[in-house]
Amino acid sequence: MMNLSSILIENLLFSTGLISLYSDEENRLLQNSVIFGLSMARELLILVLLTYRVEITKWLFPKHQIRATFADSMMPWLYLIGAAISFFALIENYFRNAKGYDITFFFYAFEITGYLIFSTLCAILVALTVISYKEAYELKVPSIKKRS
What is the C-alpha separation between 82 and 147, in angstroms, rounded? Predict the structure, then answer.
């Protein structure tokens, strides 16, 4: 849910033009800093929420039995990697636009790594859905062994 809401907020900010993705030579440092900074802040916020997901969920829904899943150990790492990439892109932006160095590794890899992290998160959520469905309905995995 956190992932979906953050994507919706990000799309709302950038697709409506509230924060422009285009910049000219004069404000390129500021514009890219806003974009990379918001991305890093979003990922750090989600990282904190995912780190304490079980405790927050137990506090919000005290009557339900809440337990940690495999996604609780994998998803924070993906957001930590995303925050690190955003941080390095922010630093690279400073050197590229304020100091004049010609480095663009994280600038060009930012979108690709974002898609890779997002697709990995989607795969984790699909696997979690399948496992939860299997546990809820007690489905057995087909086997070629003979029943005894």
Answer: 48
Contact 89, 106 (CB under 8 A): yes
Q: What is the pLDDT of residues 74-133, one digit of tens each?
A: 999 999 999 999 999 999 999 998 898 888 898 889 889 989 999 999 999 999 988 888
pTM of this prediction?
0.80
Cα distances (Å, whole numbers) of residue 84 to 87, 90, 141? 5, 10, 39
Q: What is the CA radius of gyration of the chain?
A: 20
Cα 40 from Cα 43, distance rounded (Å): 5
| CA distance readout (Å), 131 to 74, 95, 101 | 15, 46, 49
